[in-house]
Amino acid sequence: MADPATISPATLLKDELDIVIPTIRNLDFLEMWRPFFQPYHLIIVQDGDPSKAIKVPEGFDYELYNRNDINRILGPKASCISFKDSACRCFGYMVSKKKYIYTIDDDCFVAKDPSGKDINALEQHIKNLLSPSTPFFFNTLYDPYRAGADFVRGYPFSLREGVPTAVSHGLWLNIPDYDAPTQLVKPLERNTRYVDAVMTIPKGTLFPMCGMNLAFDRELIGPAMYFGLMGDGQPIGRYDDMWAGWCTKVICDHLGWGVKTGLPYIWHSKASNPFVNLRKEYKGIYWQEELIPFFQSVTLPKDCTSVQKCYTEIAKQVKAKLGKVDDYFNKLADAMVTWIEAWDELNPSGASKSSDLPNGASK
Prior knowledge:
Elements: H1 9-12, E1 17-23, H2 30-37, E2 41-46, E3 61-65, H3 67-74, H4 90-95, E4 100-104, E5 108-109, H5 121-130, E6 165-174, H6 180-185, E7 198-200, E8 213-217, H7 218-221, H8 240-255, E9 258-268, H9 274-297, H10 307-322, H11 328-346, E10 361-362
Parallel strand pairs: 1-2, 1-4, 2-3, 6-9
Antiparallel strand pairs: 3-10, 4-8, 5-9, 6-8, 7-9
Subcellular location: Golgi apparatus
Keywords: Cell wall biogenesis/degradation, Glycoprotein, Golgi apparatus, Isomerase
Protein name: UDP-arabinopyranose mutase
């Protein structure tokens, strides 16, 4: 594994990473990201009205998919892709043919570090993904592979090689990623605390994954990054990324991969309406008291040796154990299976990196 301190990320992964952006509006925010994103290919998933024209600044290499494209490409299996919810972004993961994915929301801008320098979030994510994780034994100096750090005294030498990093979970300055009740009681709270650290989330520990500043190794964990059934026609929203995070973490723990959280920070520019959020979240606030114990108790058989097998097994357990909480989870379990079937159709095992997939509008 390369020393992350010596990696030149932008040149190394220029042709190996796609940036996935869900949106309902013109992507003017890309102007601020131009120095960092322009070398990369963008996959834009347009939510809402497919007849609305989305403007992308000149000079970016991109594909744009709307709901009509999703229906055309997936046919009946398009039912697994959420509508009128940022969960639609996972369609971009499915149609990408790159090894890595970075996904960002369109209200996220370039943050500055404490010295006032612009943070290249993508570069830090790449460094996280290209260096190993340490999920089986916690290093009190956090990421031991970072320049200026190492394993502390008492850290087992047999574990120092680490394991592949599947997920890099970044954070946010300014508007915190709060649920609606917390937004309502702390409407003016802003995150100004910049913690200069990356850590591996230990094996057996779940976390609330946020999709607004997230990168992952698509070849390792891509089929588990399904953001569920949310938004239009569903009784719940704003749990899409967390659902994917819980499934992903259980699978990473089973297959022996790592999840990192911490750097990089982005600037989250605007808070969503807490009253609207409460309508989307209120069932989830009750259901999560059942969901967390469920994921804490999920066990995967030894013959689950691929992400697809693991994910299909989780879907089976969702139907068996969460279906009695609400019929929604029976629908979600079926959609999880449909997602895997669609993923495998568009990403056949052993297929070449190039694809004859009928793309959306390309630029």
